[in-house]
Design brief:
Layout: H1 2-20, H2 28-36, H3 42-76, H4 88-103, H5 108-131, H6 139-162, H7 165-175, H8 184-203, H9 205-211, H10 215-220, H11 225-247, H12 253-265, H13 269-291, H14 302-324
């Protein structure tokens, strides 16, 4: 419990740092006045309309992707499972690009539903492809199916963008994973779905402890494994799809955070889920703050920062799994 409280305090602290950090010099005192004595100055406008939404989106998306990773790894028994690796982010991203290039969709609400649809199609496709064969669904086959679907959806996305230069300019920065310039309206359009996903994740957390022991044991203890897996699928689609709609496809959080959270707090999902959510928000906030200073006054997309952070850890996990095998 103390670790969760400390993580929550650190998350709030990083949100404060995010609000005052960037090319325009501001302070905590100035940020406080922006909300209590708004005077219409450029600094106050930046804090209210740019940095506050950015901090809230980073915390929400980071938490959502981390929780998605926890549940995907538990259900699939695959330490590499995450929305990015198993093609769910790529599917959601392709669906949004398809809607922009073919139907010129611009509504935030429509973006959200299209992102959910793309995430669902990708998840079902990976599950089906990974389950084909004599041995059924195995961690290795699931990973390979996810990699194949990620490559497929990414190729489709790039192919569509090459035929539409206007769409390329509009979505290229979004596709790299970025929360720069995102407005509060974007978070408002997906936040209700993220909240539903978080609440469902907390509700089924005790049952996931049983699921972690294996499907046969879970069935023997009276757990409805099939229904629980459907619930996990809904949670992942809500959280991953909503995250892609808000910030584009951001990878590695769903891989890195679950492993760190298990080491720090254990495998009890009643504590693991909220702790992972806090750590996910912390990681994405820290990456976004760092992205503002590397090539200032320009900014590196936070998705690129996460690749720098997450790739070494991904290699470590993969090598560790290969050594065990």
């Amino acid at each position: 419990m103390s670790k969760i409280i400390l993580a929550a305090i650190f998350l709030v602290l990083l949100m404060g740092i995010s609000i005052v950090s960037g090319y325009t010099d501001t302070t905590m005192q100035l940020a406080y006045k922006a909300f209590t004595a708004f005077d219409g100055s450029n600094e106050h406008l930046i804090i209210q309309t740019v940095r506050l939404p950015r901090a809230l989106i980073a915390a929400s998306v980071g938490a959502s992707l981390a929780v998605s990773g926890v549940y995907m790894q538990t259900v699939t028994k695959n330490p590499l499972a995450s929305p990015g690796i198993l093609g769910i982010n790529a599917g959601a991203g392709f669906a949004v690009v398809f809607a922009i290039t073919i139907f010129q969709v611009s509504s935030l609400g429509v973006f959200t539903w299209i992102s959910f649809l793309g995430a669902a199609i990708a998840a079902l496709t990976v599950y089906f492809v990974g389950g084909v064969g004599k041995r059924g669904l195995t961690p290795m086959k699931l990973t390979l199916a996810g990699a194949a679907m990620t490559a497929l959806f990414s190729s489709f996305t790039q192919g569509m963008l090459t035929t539409n230069e206007a769409a390329l300019d509009e979505v290229l920065f979004w596709l790299s994973g970025s929360i720069q310039g995102r407005k509060l309206e974007i978070l408002a359009s997906v936040f209700p779905y993220l909240v539903v996903g978080w609440l469902l994740a907390l509700v089924i957390a005790p049952m996931m402890n049983v699921m972690a022991m294996g499907d046969d044991i879970a069935r023997g203890l009276g757990l409805k494994v099939g229904m629980l897996k459907i619930m996990v699928g809904v949670i992942v689609i809500l959280l991953a799809g909503g995250s892609v709609a808000a910030a584009g496809p951001i990878g590695f959080i769903g891989i890195v955070i679950p492993h760190i959270a298990r080491r720090l707090i254990g495998i009890d999902h009643r504590w693991l889920v909220p702790f992972a959510a806090l750590l996910g928000g912390i990681l994405l906030l820290a990456a976004d703050i760092g992205a503002r200073y590397i090539v200032m006054p320009q900014e590196v997309p936070v998705g690129v920062m996460m690749a720098f952070i997450g790739t070494p850890y991904f290699i470590y996990i993969a090598r560790k799994g290969a050594n065990k095998g």
